[in-house]
């Protein structure tokens, strides 16, 4: 078996690369904001409403999302929102974010406490593609031919079934 020597320079460079990668990873974890959790207990006669807004599919928190409850507004930071010292009553909350379906909820705050409301926004569905109209389309795999109307749509469905 042949013995190979490793140059000290290779070890140092490799160590520096690994060390830099670990430092970047640690910096990311340290700077990534964790949700602050519940606010302090509300003053007598009021309630607090707080929570996280996330993507319903990925679970990722969504920053910069506007939230409204009966004329009061907040914008999420790292997905977190909070409304403090709210009157005890019924509220209607709405959340709208570009690329997501609108969200609306009735909220009843009837006790002096913190209420947690986590909201999972559903991404908007992508509309199906529109196919240009052609008189006929032939399958490149089996030579089946499809005719108008919707020749291309029929062809694509045929290919997907194969």
Detailed description of the structure:
This protein is an alpha+beta fold. Among the domains are: about 45-120, Immunoglobulin-like (Sandwich); about 130-160, no CATH class. Helix content is about 20%, strand content about 30%. It is built from 2 helices and 10 strands. The strands form 3 sheets. Strands 1, 4, 7 and 8 form a 4-stranded mixed β-sheet that branches. It has a 4-stranded antiparallel β-sheet with strand order 3-2-5-6, with no helix packed on it. A hairpin with a 7-residue loop joins strand 5 (about 90-95) and strand 6. The longest helix has 24 residues, at about 10-30. The chain is elongated and about 75 Å long. It starts with 7 loop residues before the first helix and ends with a helix. The relative contact order is 0.14. Mean pLDDT is about 80; it is low at about 15-20 and about 25-30. InterPro entries: Carb-bd-like_fold (IPR013784). Keywords: Membrane, Transmembrane, Transmembrane helix. GO terms for molecular function: carbohydrate binding. It comes from marine sediment metagenome. This is Carboxypeptidase regulatory-like domain-containing protein.
């Amino acid at each position: 078996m042949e013995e190979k020597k490793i140059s000290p320079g290779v070890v140092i460079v490799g160590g520096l690369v690994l060390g830099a990668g670990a430092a970047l990873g640690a910096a990311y974890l340290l700077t990534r904001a964790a949700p602050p959790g519940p606010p302090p207990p509300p003053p007598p006669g009021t309630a607090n409403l707080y929570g996280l807004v996330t993507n319903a599919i990925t679970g990722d928190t969504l920053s910069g999302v506007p939230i409204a409850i009966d004329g009061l507004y907040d914008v999420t930071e790292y997905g977190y929102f909070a409304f403090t010292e709210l009157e005890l009553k019924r509220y209607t909350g709405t959340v709208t974010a570009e690329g997501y379906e609108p969200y609306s909820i009735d909220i009843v705050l009837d006790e002096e406490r913190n209420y947690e409301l986590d909201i999972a926004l559903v991404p908007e569905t992508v509309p199906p593609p529109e196919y240009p109209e052609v008189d006929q389309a032939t399958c490149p795999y089996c030579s089946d031919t499809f005719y108008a109307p919707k020749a291309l749509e029929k062809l694509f469905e045929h290919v997907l079934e194969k």
